[in-house]
Fold this protein.
Amino acid sequence: MSVPEGVTRCLAILKAVDTDSEKFAALFMVTKLVDGKDCTPAAKRMLFEAIGAKFLKRLLVSDSVPVDCPPQVYKSVALSILTAFCGEPELASHPDMVGHIPALLEIVSQADEDAADDMLIIVSEAYTCLQSIAQYPPGQKALLEQQAIPKMCDIYAEKSFQTDEALNILVTLVGRFGPEAWHPSDTAPFHAILHKVTLDFETDHTERKFQLCGILQALLQSCRKDVISTSAKEESWPLSIHKGLSDILGSKISKNQRDPALKLASVTMDLLGAEWAMSDKEKPKILLLLLIQLASIEVRMQLEGKQLKAVLTNADLVTACFAILEISLGYIVTDQLDLDQKEKQSLYTALKGAFAAVIGLLNAVSKMKTLTNMEEKIFVCAVVRVLAAWLAQETTAMRPQVYAVLPYVLTVANDTFYAHRNRKLAEKAKAGAKAAGKSDEGTSSGEPVVSGDPMSENDILRLLLPALCYLAVEEDARKILLKHKQDDVLFECLSYHWTIVHYKKPPVPRSERLKVLQDGNRTEELDLSVLEEMKDSRTAMVSICNVLMNITVLEAKLVEESPTFVSLLKFIFNNLPELKQIPENLVLHGHLAVLGLLLLKQQAKRVKKNDFSICRYIQATIRFLWDAYIIDEGNDPTELVVAISYKEHWMELMELWFLGMQTMAGVLQVIPWLSQFTLESGWAEEIIETLKKVKVGGLQPNVKSAFEDLLCHLVKANDGVASVLKKRGALTVCRNHRMMELGKHLFGD
């Protein structure tokens, strides 16, 4: 490797000098050499190392300068040197260059537009160095450790000189580190920077407004969603974004201006929900409806008649539009959006057009060879995900087209479920091994298991479950589900989510058992993330139960013979009694209980009297049905009301309870010996005792029918029931509530 003669000479001088003054004089020669054409990266490195980091650091921090010299002369020269070198990637990430970060941050933190010109030049050069250093991992890591992010936030929010440079460095760092860039609990720096940037965004009407879209998108994407989504409610910046976007999207703009606005709207909705788009008190619906329209149009423009590869060129924009549609659909389903007929029609037309394009693309992709390109696979997952959101809300449109792509949709969804499950189980196994002290030294860092498969990050099947509830009712769709063996997958899915809902803490390592005993076995609260996961899995299990109930009712013959449904019933027998009796589990308890009854009725021939698990299951099921209605002791002791514990969830439980009562009656008809167990539980007697207290005519007709039908079937199934009910006062109940049918069974005509 040949070194230019000038560089060799300069290196010799730098090595020969004895004092800082002599070295300082030699620096002027260095700056000329570095800018020369002959100075290779290797030569620059040699010069940089010859100067020495300690010497440059002394120049940067020294305030004492020779008489008649400008006060900032040392800093100025040092920064000229650093600026000359930091443009070289190898030197920008050099440990010596990275080591200057504290001094550089100190300089930019003191920037003031009223300062002398030479100081402003120094600040400008310090920013140049920081921006170069921030491009590479070593510098990024050091900047994060040196608290550069809160410092840049502070500079942008409080200063007025070269704040855009601070913002650019900030965006670079948050783009690299994501949520890890921000403090886990101190949200002040994030809100401060958002407040300032969004204020600029709201009030600026130049081209900069569109540049700020991208900056805001990067900042919002990087935030810690859990803490920011909550704390943002107290801040003004969400409204500033709303106003800024309303301004942009309500104007005549080009595609280059609209695209970043849609991306910003998408990430804001993802963080703050669809409610954010409704935050204009005077015209709450305008922005949300506009976003749905624009996103729908964009989806059509990007997808219609195009091949997957062509669509992928704008994947970021398309997935942003998907997010807008998915979040909006989730909000529409809640019936909180009050629309007039014209708005409804306009919305329906826009969405139908968008999802016709989505289905068209999926149809084309389903006929292609199996995708191997990861970018394509991830994008197709996004397409299936947004379709799932629409299918959960739209239950009649384009059925032939939906059925045509349904097998492919199921394949994609199932693949992601298995990948996601495998990743989660691997993480859990590692955590368990570590807790038990079995983790080997090579993997004891406590880091989560990182799956090499990006497909494992999202469980699309989980998101498809609400749509499957509707599809299972449609005959053509149900045939496809069963042909695809989706019932098998759903059973696996149910079993997997059960492991999360029925969470058990890992065993205490032997080394910590004494401490636990000394603490009196004090139970610790579960992590918030674990509780959230449990909540989501409960919801998933409820949805799966609904799908399987629909199949059970509509495919009786299949359910009677299917090994999957036989195993499913055993699963419910074994696990329902183990479900913790806590309020959060009530809805799930009801769904598992009633699904079990439906299956039990279909598979009555398989049930054996000596199967103890059925007794425990029936006991748990009776408990669910029994506890729903109580006498209102507090207000009116003659009125039957829904129990307080059920009231909160009664919209979900009401139909389930009536179905459970009806099916329980049907089960007693086909498995009469269960009547003895029901009688021994005391439930039948308690029904009579309760109904005796209810005033004449005080029973709702459907509640009366449910109880009467159950008691009639109980009497028919077991000769000993009638006498027990009579002793309890069944005659009074029959008279008071005009239970003619029960009266006939108990007392004859």
Observations:
- Confidence is low (pLDDT under 50) at residues 439-451.
